[in-house]
């Protein structure tokens, strides 16, 4: 897949409120479509007959980033780092514990459900598993039409017309509208998921591991569809994945998450050529290099991601970091701008 956007990534001045760059992938200076400030989601751990709270899962623990119009931010990290919870919290499928979510500059974090509805339709989600995210009893056309019905859009005939148009947009034939999900391949099912996400003309689509369940060749097709849609419709994406290689092609900027926090955040080129954080380096070392003459040293991290119920003190990464020092155990490194547009949370890099 040829990438034509690698060099058009101007970094706008840091946003004073969040400390994060307010750039857009297009270079147009405008209000970000989405701004996330110090977002937290702590799930209570309850025990005993009285369901007493005995602790918390610190799933998301102070995450800030922005997404501009027509921009894709890749959110990457190992399983259990909190990246999917970020996506669900933005849509308020789970309510945030703290922090702010701004859509087009409007703080929607604590809006009552009814007032949140118009903002919610601006943000849609594509789920990981196209096999379980589509209702097997509904036809593909009904699935794509459902959000239009829920939001009272048009009549039956105009909805059918819109669904046919959406099928065409994602490379499906309108004649397939009356087929059931089991009659489609995995890639086609994910196209149905994309068509459903597009139905209400959203500004932002959150892809929660949208290609992880697909074969590699189909992954490329789905990513290309998403990129074409972005070009045509000016969509913004938050693309969540455990695999740095998957987000490389589609992302303008990449945020790397570890145990509920962003540890590095920069434009794609910087992440891939000059990462700062040892965790980003480790993730990067696992990404295959297409040129066999280039050898990348594989860094294997010891152990699994620690439990978010009891995250390690100081720098959460110190239990696995190859360059950890005594200070790392007691002192939590803030996410700071290390070079223009490159933010990292490490005392020594
Ligand atoms: Fe490693 Fe210490 Fe940097 Fe954390 S602060 S990434 S433990 S060197």
How would you describe this protein?
- With 349 residues, the chain is an alpha/beta fold.
- It has a single domain (14-122, 202-344), classed as 3-Layer(aba) Sandwich (Rossmann fold).
- The chain has ten helices and twelve strands.
- Helix 3 (140-150) runs parallel beside helix 5 (186-198), helix 4 (156-169) crosses helix 5 and helix 5 runs parallel beside helix 6.
- Bound molecules: iron/sulfur cluster.
Secondary-structure element order, N to C: EEEHEEHEHHHEHEHEEHHHEE
CATH topology: Rossmann fold
Overall, the morphology is globular
Strand content is 15-25%
- Tell me the number of structural domains: 1
Look at the structure and name the CATH superfamily: P-loop containing nucleotide triphosphate hydrolases
Bound heterogens, unique: iron/sulfur cluster
Query: Which structural category do the helix and sheet elements fall into?
Result: alpha/beta
The major beta sheet can be summarized as: 8 strands, mixed
Strand order of the largest sheet: 6-7-8-3-9-10-12-11
CATH 2nd-level architecture: 3-Layer(aba) Sandwich
Topology, number of strands: 12
Overall mean pLDDT stands at: 88
The number of helical runs is 10
